[in-house]
Amino acid sequence: MKLLIHNIMKSHCKGVTDGFPLKLISSEVNVNEIEFNADFISRMLSRLDWQVLVSTAKSIGYGESLPDMCPDNVEDDEELLKQVHHVLLEVEVVEGYLECPETGHQFPISKGIPDMRLKEED
Questions:
Q1: Which of 49, 81, 103, 117 is 20 to 30 Å from 20 at the Cα level?
Q2: pTM for the whole thing?
Q3: How far is the C-alpha of 37 from the C-alpha of 13, rounded, in Å?
Q4: Which ranges in the chain belong to alpha helices (H)?
Q5: What does the longest C-alpha to C-alpha distance in the chain come to?
Q6: 117: number of Cβ within 10 Å
């Protein structure tokens, strides 16, 4: 699961009012090189929760170079765009789980795919 996907996911457990952000716990992470596209990253920035991206990337050991706050005119900083590209698209959680921030329910990630299915009681 790429961090781009994580940044838009939320829990739909019963009784959950927000369910965002899901806590990401990784047991296996792969990094795969993907062609850099500055326009795509620039367009995605307005749709991301920057602080969630940075804290999640840091929690799995890949966000140390990202600033805590998204700088103004980040679209003009190609080096920063490349760093964002790296954590959004090249870093992939292969095994682990997502945890609902309100209920603690865990959703497994297997082979890079999060299983967000709920049992009837959830």
A1: 81
A2: 0.92
A3: 35
A4: 3-6, 38-45, 50-59, 78-85
A5: 49
A6: 8
